[in-house]
Amino acid sequence: MDNPIIVALDLPSQQKALELAEKLAPLVGAFKVGKQLFISSGPDVVRKLRATGAKVFLDLKLHDIPNTVAKAVIAATDLDVQMTTVHASGGTEMLAAAENAAHEQAAMLRADPLLVLAVTVLTSMDEGNLAELGVGGKVQEQVLRLAKLATVAGLRGLVCSPQEIEMLRAELGDDIQLVTPGIRPATIKTDDQKRTMTPAEAIQAGANWLVIGRPITSANDPRAAAIGILHSIDPELVPKSERREPIP
Ligand code: C5P
Question: Is residue 127 helix, strand or coil?
Answer without folding.
Answer: helix
